[in-house]
Amino acid sequence: MPLRTGVVLQKRLELGIKAPGTTREVTVDRMTFNVDGTITPIVPTL
Length: 46
Hints:
Blueprint: E1 5-14, E2 23-32
Antiparallel strand pairs: 1-2
């Protein structure tokens, strides 16, 4: 049986040098499930 996949969307506020909270970023990471239904560890985009 093939592994199921999905995506994780995350919106973050950068705590940058200019004005904290003024820069927003969105990341998309792959999420895969094992045959038993558990989620494999997700490596977040930096």
